[in-house]
Design brief:
3-stranded antiparallel sheet, single chain, 52% helix, 6-stranded mixed sheet, 807 residues, Helicase, Ruva Protein, domain 3, mainly alpha, Rossmann fold, elongated
């Protein structure tokens, strides 16, 4: 179907919505966490009193306790402060107003005030505060050790250390430096061991720290509904276990990058309120033998403790394909290893890949891939898949993967010395291990390299594809990110953005909105407009053009080439619309016309492939029509693509005079081999099958010529628009055909006889210049940018202009 022109923007400005994700009251603490500091202080005082009582037998324990309370008054003060702190927390857990006062007006005000301080000054103040705290603690310890007051200990400390070091330098200095070096070495070794070998690459978030919710994940509702079921099992395990089942323990999320896999894992932790452990599998690459399995075992000890303490834990392995496999061949199965649409994102070229739908692009891509010549002349090597040799996978190592598989399957093993050895020694039945509620979530965009043992039920029970969001999901994602900024887009314009953004992930949409905000700020505005969104989308989709200027003659030739593609696409392709047409260079691309599908399809028919072929052939037909039978070498890629599609349709899909499939006799997957089975070097096009392909191409070429001749006026109109503006949108091209106003230009001017006469004269001058290999004698005509006041927008009566048929 044809999209209507974008409606005028709304006058009202949408302000960003504020969504307060913090609970009104403070999260309740467990009893052990509430009293642990009080118990430690009380225990320390009691032990001190017991030691004094044993040292002085004539002193009763009560007298010793009173003496220690007087001597360690500061501990009593800390005990009282801790009691007040816990009372404060207790009130915050039950009174929302009291908690909000402290959160917003006390700590919030302090945070806002500190945010205004220079970062370097904040760093120096923080360092000074640490030094003061360290001095106070050291002074208290020295005062207790030397039996003096705090002030005396601080004053006498430099002198006492000076006496130790310099009064007896033979014994003092070596002892001092030995202690310092030993302490530093021990501390450094401890940090290296725990920081690199044990905890590197693992981030732990306490229960309630993750604020992400399912409402923050836009455009993936079908997957979220499936994940919700796993959360229900995690929170209510008894319901399924009472019926003889078991709680699923693992989820694999796979799909293209940027579709929200990591965000979904965070949302699971946020919805359940469980601790969230983020694991970077690359941290398990073995620097030393045995380190990776040790880190895996340490990780699962930590997960088991968190699961028992909080009733469950969510652990997320990002980029799980780094774990690799142990040498097994991927079975494929539900994983589609074919290249997705984003594999074609770099093929911005006038050479065959920008004018048709995704099915035709897939054919062209699979035809180009085995070839030794790439799009830009570089060598292309086929991608290697299958067995990963050596057991090292993608770098994780067999040890790390084997340890992970063992830990995931061994959560029901008896653990602990007393549960196993001591009870066995007493001939007692081993104690049943607790049920560890650990939900594993793994994310990858390369599921085909994961080990089969990792994917089996019991480890990863559920496997969900997180694909590109559908149009409703993209609309919701645009709404979500636009609500965070000020904008003037209407709901109809947001709907249109969702339609013309196929294969846009949440990350891409977020980037487009952010780029639009940058464009608006660059123009001195804080409100995003429709034009800002279109410009941002084109920049993010097709890249920034090079700083390149065509000569007058070549500029016109490239514009005519792209205008022919644009007219063919507009007239023939009913299930897609033009996103952008440009003659600005991007790398090795001289210009292109990019389509946007209006609906998502799974398969294609012969009539659709014929339209794709005509769109490719339009460049050759148009150049010959407008340059008196001559054509450029720029049509080479178009002809390759057209030939490839016709060969595939007739060889494999019964879309030609023959019914038999060439797939039976050809070993090359996805394409027709150019070398016959008998080993000769005959060209395929010289065979009878090749003659059929050529005959079909000639038929489609003739139909394309006729279509362009009927639309010659509009080929010249679009060529002029491209020469004038370099880049125009699909709405601008639609405005040229309809005589309406587009985002960049007013299409009315192209329906006047003045334009046609002036541009025809200019075109004739370019033909003469082309023959003489000289510069055109006329300049590009400049036409009025808007219609005269009171004009109805149409030229004097002329033969009716063919209109694009509505589906």
């Amino acid at each position: 179907m044809t999209l209507p022109p974008p409606p005028p923007p709304l006058q009202a400005v949408h302000e960003p919505e504020r969504d307060d994700r913090e609970p009104r009251t403070r999260m309740k603490m467990m009893l052990g966490d509430r009293i642990k500091v009080l118990v430690l202080i009380a225990l320390f005082i009691l032990l001190s009193a017991a030691y004094l009582h044993s040292s002085i037998p004539i002193m009763s324990f009560w007298e010793a306790l009173q003496d220690q309370l007087r001597a360690k008054w500061w501990l009593v003060g800390l005990f009282g402060l801790e009691v007040l702190r816990q009372l404060h927390y207790l009130i915050c857990e039950r009174v929302a107003g009291y908690n909000q006062f402290w959160e917003k007006h006390v700590w919030g005000a302090w945070g806002r005030r500190m945010d205004k301080v220079n970062p370097w000054r904040r760093y120096r103040l923080n360092r000074m505060f640490k030094f003061i705290v360290f001095t106070i603690i050291a002074g208290l310890i020295l005062a207790w050790k030397w039996g003096t007051t705090f002030i005396e200990a601080i004053v006498e400390a430099p002198a006492r250390f000076f006496d130790i070091l310099f009064v007896n330098p033979i014994a003092g200095l070596p002892l001092f430096f030995t202690l310092i070096i030993t302490a530093m070495y021990g501390l450094f070794s401890l940090l290296i061991f725990y920081g690199i070998f044990m905890i590197g690459g693992i981030e732990t978030y306490k229960a309630g720290e993750i604020k992400t919710r399912f409402r923050d994940v836009w455009g993936q509702d079908p997957v979220l509904h499936k994940i919700q079921e796993n959360i229900d099992f995690l929170e209510k395990p008894a319901e399924i276990e009472a019926k003889g089942g078991y709680v699923p323990s693992g989820i694999l999320l796979w799909g293209p990058p940027g579709t929200g896999k990591t965000l979904m894992a965070e949302a699971v932790a946020g919805e359940t309120g469980k601790p969230y452990v983020f694991v970077d599998p690359s941290a398990f690459v073995q620097t030393f033998i045995g380190v990776a399995p040790m880190k895996i075992k340490w990780l699962y000890r930590k997960l088991r403790k968190q699961a028992l303490r909080n009733g469950g834990v969510v652990v997320f392995f990002d980029e799980a394909d780094v774990l690799g496999n142990r040498g097994s061949t991927s079975q494929g199965g539900q994983f589609d290893s074919r290249r997705e649409h984003d594999s074609l994102a770099g093929l911005h070229s006038c050479n065959a890949v920008h004018y048709v739908d995704d099915h035709a692009l897939s054919i062209v891509w699979h035809g180009l891939q085995p070839s030794t010549a790439g799009i830009d002349g570089e060598d292309q090597k086929p991608e290697k898949r299958g067995i990963i040799m050596g057991g090292m996978g993608m770098g994780g190592g067999m040890g790390a993967l084997q340890a992970l598989l063992t830990e995931m399957s061994g959560l029901r093993k008896p653990r602990g010395f007393f549960s196993r050895r001591f009870r066995s020694f007493l001939c007692m039945k081993p104690k049943a291990p607790p049920k560890y509620r650990i939900l594993h979530i793994m994310a990858t965009n390369r599921p085909d390299v994961l080990d089969d043992a990792l994917l089996r039920p019991g480890r990863l029970d559920r496997i969900y594809k997180v694909g590109y969001p559908h149009v409703d999901g993209r609309r919701r994602t645009y709404d979500g990110y636009l609500d965070k900024v000020k904008h003037e887009l209407s709901s109809a314009q947001v709907d249109r953005l969702a339609v013309i953004s196929p294969y846009a992930t949440g990350a891409i949409i977020k980037d487009i909105v952010n780029e639009a905000l940058i464009i608006a700020m660059r123009d001195g505005r804080d409100t995003i407009t429709w034009a800002d969104m279109l410009k941002a989308k084109h920049i993010k989709t097709h890249g920034i053009p090079d700083d390149w200027t065509y000569g007058d003659l070549e500029r016109h030739q490239v514009a005519v080439h792209e205008a022919c593609h644009a007219v063919a696409m507009y007239r023939l392709q009913k299930r897609s619309t033009i996103d952008v047409a440009t003659i600005e260079r991007r790398g090795g691309t001289g210009g292109f016309v990019a389509p946007m599908p209006l609906e998502e399809r799974f398969t294609e028919w012969r009539s659709g492939f014929d339209i794709n072929v005509k769109t490719f052939l339009a460049s050759l037909a148009g150049e010959r029509m407008l340059f008196e039978g001559d054509n450029s070498a720029g049509v080479g890629g178009d002809l390759y693509s057209a030939t490839r599609i016709v060969m595939e349709t007739q060889a494999y899909w019964g879309m030609g005079p023959s019914v038999a499939s060439h797939a039976v006799t050809k070993a090359q997957r996805g394409g027709v081999s150019s070398r016959p089975e008998d080993g000769t070097d005959r060209n395929l096009l010289e065979t009878s099958f090749g003659h059929q392909v050529e005959a079909r191409l000639q038929e489609l070429f003739a139909e394309t010529q006729e279509m362009l001749e009927d639309n010659r006026r509009f080929v010249l109109a679009i060529a002029h628009a491209l020469e004038t503006y370099k880049t125009v949108t699909g709405d601008d091209i639609d405005a040229i055909f309809r005589g309406t106003t587009g985002p960049t230009l007013d299409g009315w001017v192209y329906h006047t006889d003045e334009f046609l006469l002036s541009y025809e004269a200019y075109h004739l001058s370019t033909i003469e210049a082309h023959k003489a290999q000289a510069k055109p004698s006329r300049e590009l005509p400049v036409i009025a940018t808007s219609r005269p006041e009171g004009s109805n927008g149409w030229a004097p009566p002329r033969p009716p202009v063919p209109r694009r048929r509505e589906p």
